[in-house]
Design goal:
The structure is a single chain. The protein has a 7-stranded parallel beta sheet with strand order 3-2-4-1-5-6-7, with helices on both faces. It is built from 12 helices and 12 strands. Strand 2, helix 2 and strand 3 form a beta-alpha-beta unit. The relative contact order is 0.15. It has 324 residues and is of the alpha/beta class. The protein has 2 domains: 203 residues, Rossmann fold (3-Layer(aba) Sandwich), CATH 3.40.50.300; 101 residues, CobW-like, C-terminal domain (Hypothetical Protein Yjia, Chain: A,domain 2), CATH 3.30.1220.10. Bound molecules: guanosine-5'-triphosphate. The site of guanosine-5'-triphosphate has 22 residues, from helix 1, strand 9 and strand 10.
């Protein structure tokens, strides 16, 4: 049986994994790619941000792919293969807090999986602007150690001297990976697809225990708050609130993202926050058959859910109208 190649895209929160995935999907014409997106948080935002060109996108939102959803991952792959739709290869985007080791383990130890899929490469996206902060998290360091390909991304946000310093550090942490510098993950497909770079021998050199089951622990102070609303959001109120939030708790706020419904707007509004950086743009058009909704997710340390919910509620257009 021919095994389908699988690329694992990993990298810390907000480094550019979905940006890379969308680039691959838009450029890999003629290749039927099944995508599995794992997100840390119960509201699937990444699934909404993946390009619509794909038929087969499965979201795993119940936890981190390295812990609770490992069985779900295998079930998702089974489901896709059993669907009867033609599939040429797989791409798995892990959550930004995933340790890739247990996922690699599944590919080696699960007989059914190993007989059908083979790992092509682990591609790790590194945020040049924030990697120094991220490296205090064990997961970020592991993601770099296990990479076959490292994309040193967001080169527009760091100067050459800083990029050189980061690259030397990456090289020390992972002497074997190929390193490419990118802006918005602008990389030729041949560097990230069909590179045949995964080699268990290398992985065992990095972590001789990798094939043994071991509990994986996350930093318990990092949590996730996901909020959904069906009332439209007031853009000005949202803008003010997000900017205040970044000022107040920016250092603890690792990531925020949202797909929002603004009153009287034909398109969704997509926004991303990575630490103190905020960015927004129009997204896909709302279809008449769709129920408009807004999803927003915060990932960070010691988040206060009640305050975040109250803050977001204050940005809903109708509630503001009632209050004022
Ligand atoms: N300035 C700059 N921004 C970038 C670059 N690459 C990606 N971004 C932005 O960084 C933010 C996060 O990008 P994503 O692709 O969603 O990152 P991610 O790793 O999928 O995020 P999570 O899945 O939440 O961990 C978005 O606002 C992107 O537009 C880059 O090279 N330069």
């Amino acid at each position: 049986m021919i095994k389908l190649k699988t690329t694992i895209i990993t990298g810390f929160l907000g480094s550019g994994k979905t940006t890379l995935l969308n680039r691959i999907l838009s450029e890999a014409e003629g290749t039927r790619i099944a995508v599995i997106v794992n997100e840390y948080g119960e509201v699937g935002i990444d699934g909404q941000l993946v390009l619509e060109t794909q038929d087969d996108v499965v979201e795993l939102n119940n936890g981190c792919i390295c812990c609770t959803v490992r069985e779900d991952l295998i079930a998702a792959i089974r489901g896709l293969l059993d669907s009867g739709r033609p599939i040429d290869r797989f791409i798995i985007e892990t959550s930004g807090l995933a340790d890739p080791a247990p996922v690699i383990q599944s590919f080696v130890l699960d007989e059914w999986l190993a007989s059908r899929l083979e790992l092509d490469a682990i591609v790790t996206v590194v945020d040049a602007n924030h990697i120094t902060q991220h490296l205090s998290q064990e997961e970020a360091a592991e993601q770099i150690s296990f990479a076959d390909v490292l994309l040193l991304n967001k080169t527009d946000l760091a100067d050459d001297a800083h990029l050189d310093a980061i690259e030397s550090d990456l090289r020390m942490r992972n002497p074997l990976a190929r390193i490419h510098r990118t802006k918005s993950c602008d990389i030729a497909l041949r560097h990230v697809m069909n590179v045949n770079a995964f080699d268990l021998k290398n992985i065992l050199t990095i972590d001789p225990q990798i094939l043994q089951e071991h509990d994986h622990e996350h930093d318990q102070s990092i949590g996730c708050v996901a909020i959904r609303a069906f009332d439209p959001v007031d853009p000005q109120a949202l803008n003010g609130w997000l900017n205040r939030l970044v000022q107040d708790i920016g250092t603890d706020l690792l990531r925020m993202k949202g797909v929002l419904s603004f009153a009287d707007e034909a398109r969704r509004y997509v926004f991303h926050g990575v630490h103190m950086t905020l960015e927004g743009r129009p997204g896909k058009i709302w279809q008449p058959s769709e129920r408009r909704k807004s999803d927003i997710v915060f990932i960070g340390r010691n988040l206060d859910e009640t305050t975040l919910r109250a803050g977001f509620e204050g940005c809903l257009a109708e509630r503001r109208a009632l209050v004022s």
